[in-house]
Design goal:
The chain has about 160 residues and is mainly alpha-helical. It has two domains: about 80 residues; about 80 residues, no CATH class. The chain has four helices and no strands.
Length: about 160
């Protein structure tokens, strides 16, 4: 039984990296140029995740931390950073779900507002809202109008 959170994180990283590599290899090949070109970056990410996971597990094994002998088993409590990471993961999943349905602008405003509120607090809601709206609209204009990169249209305001 693994009692060490770092070793467990390494094992999860290895598993996710392998799944990521498998999913990357299922992506369609490029029809123009090198067929593997679109796969290089995602493959690099997957391989990096696996390698770093292996390094983390090996480091913990060398410390003797896999079975909990090197460290006392302690209560697992989430600190502020841990809660922020979990919150960011949940908000990112909601953002991905809303992205196509609500459009780029609305979903990005929601995402940024939630993250900025988590970091800056509820007292800074005016600044958080101004930043979220200006960033979302500014990036939308930059990508869709200036660079010609199509982003999901926001149905309510039709831009």
């Amino acid at each position: 039984m693994i009692n060490n959170l770092s070793a467990l994180s390494g094992i999860v990283s290895i598993i996710l990296g392998i799944v990521y590599i498998i999913q990357t290899l299922a992506l369609p090949r490029a029809s123009i140029g090198s067929p593997m070109s679109p796969l290089y970056f995602p493959l690099g990410l997957g391989v990096s995740m696996v390698v770093l996971g292996i390094i983390l597990v090996v480091q913990e094994a060398l410390k003797g931390g896999l079975n909990g002998k090197a460290r006392q088993k302690s209560d697992f409590r989430l600190n502020y950073t841990g809660k922020l990471i979990i919150f960011t993961c949940i908000i990112s999943i909601i953002y991905a779900i809303l992205y196509e349905r609500a459009g780029f602008i609305i979903s990005t405003i929601f995402f940024l507002e939630a993250i900025l509120t988590a970091i800056n607090g509820k007292d800074q809601w005016k600044i958080n809202t101004i930043v979220a709206v200006c960033f979302s609209v500014g990036i939308y204009i930059l990508f869709s109008k200036i660079l010609g990169i199509i982003l999901p249209i926001t149905p309510i305001i039709n831009i």
